[in-house]
Design goal:
about 400 residues, elongated
């Protein structure tokens, strides 16, 4: 009987492909949009993920997310170092500074100032140069994406055509930058996680970063803290809060705080949620209508099987087998297409991260689509009279 069900399903190729297309389209849209949403949310705390050495991030209590910069007094560093359980605590500067390009244009850069002595907080991966080179005079390290795009040297303009005379030349080790009217020498190229704002990232020492930055009374953005061996980071956070009055979070807590802010105060979740719901509804409509029409076209065959003694449970099993087959194929095609989409756009600016939970949730949604699509067909077959096979 199962073989008969599969032959009935695949006999009408147009409807068979139509059902698979509906399920595949729903799977593709839900997987793709959910992966882009997760990718965007991951970018919001990319800098926290790249800075893996500290256990605890200390900041102003009013900071709402990673880019909500509220500087601290330098004396707070010593107060944090005096808290019981702290192995080391180092300052970190994070701010937006303008870089003047060789063609006279300006580009805003995300400047990171790390501890002069230990260089804790540096980039996670060096492509050229060494992190220790930051100890040289006026030195900076630039991320590879910024060096090859927004900070790249622009070619001269052809006066006859008004078009650039060649492609941009990527920034390389030994080149110079002008940060807030201060000379900076590129001593290294690094790779960092893409951030939500996607601005070029420039690393330097804390002292040099505060020299580059406009003069203010407070310049220290965060204090990075490492607990002693065996110290519970959450308990250490609580002691820092009680002793200093500052906010203290573990890396995971700070990342989640950033994600919650973007989900609460931006329209990103609503926009992507609408796309996912739309994919679910469209997939259900296409698959449901096509599957129901397929059942109507095969009512005589189901009636003949009933007349030959097949019970309702056997017929329902046949319908569910048909639905399972199209569901599995459509799900595979849709998720595979989403993965292919990621591969084809791998070098673009697209934020795409397919974590394992997304295919699992999509599989659950496809199961619901398949069940809803087959529900009308099941009702129709249960009410079917075997005598239909004898009608003209």
């Amino acid at each position: 009987m199962n073989l008969v069900a599969l032959r009935m399903l695949m006999g009408d190729k147009a409807k068979y492909i139509g059902i698979i297309f509906g399920v595949a389209f729903a799977s593709l849209l839900m997987t793709q949009q959910a992966s882009i949403f997760v990718g965007l949310m991951t970018r919001t705390f990319g800098f926290v993920s790249d800075t893996g050495q500290p256990d605890v991030w200390v900041m102003d209590p009013k900071v709402q997310f990673i880019d909500d910069l509220k500087p601290l007094q330098d004396t707070m560093l010593y107060r944090v170092r005096g808290v019981e359980g702290v192995e080391w605590a180092v300052p970190l500067y994070k701010g937006l500074l303008r870089a003047r390009l060789d063609n006279g244009n300006f580009q805003t850069c995300n400047v990171i100032g790390i501890d002069d002595g230990t260089l804790i907080g540096g980039p996670p991966e060096m492509l050229e140069g060494s992190l220790a080179d930051l100890r040289r005079a006026d030195s900076v390290i630039v991320d590879v994406v910024g060096a090859t795009s927004r900070l790249a040297k622009q070619p001269p303009i052809d006066p006859a055509t008004g078009k650039p005379m060649g492609p941009p030349v990527p920034l390389k080790v030994g080149d110079f930058l002008e940060l807030n009217d201060n000379r900076a020498v590129v001593v290294g190229i690094c790779r960092v996680s893409r951030t939500f704002q996607s601005q070029p990232v420039v690393y330097t020492t804390y002292t040099r970063a505060t020299t580059f930055a406009p003069r203010e009374r407070r310049l220290m953005t965060f204090v990075l803290v490492k607990g002693r061996s065996g110290e519970d980071p959450k308990a250490l956070c609580e002691r820092i809060r009680e002793s200093t009055g500052l906010a203290a979070y573990t890396a995971d807590e700070f990342s989640w705080k950033t994600v919650v802010y973007f989900m609460k105060f931006t329209g990103i979740p609503i926009n992507f949620g609408i796309s996912v719901i739309l994919g679910f509804l469209v997939g259900t409509a296409i698959a449901g209508q096509t599957f129901y029409n397929f059942t109507l076209d095969n009512l005589k065959q189901f009636g003949a099987l009933k007349a030959m003694g097949a019970g309702n449970l056997r017929l329902l099993g046949m319908i569910m087998l048909q639905a399972l087959v199209v569901g599995l194929i459509g799900y595979g095609v849709g998720v595979g297409a989403a993965a292919g989409f990621k591969y084809l756009s791998g070098r673009s600016e697209l934020a795409f991260r397919m974590i394992w939970q997304i295919p699992v949730i999509t599989a659950g949604a496809v199961t619901i689509i398949v069940v809803l699509a087959s529900l009308l067909s099941i009702i129709k077959v249960i009410r079917l009279e075997p005598a239909i096979v004898f009608k003209g």
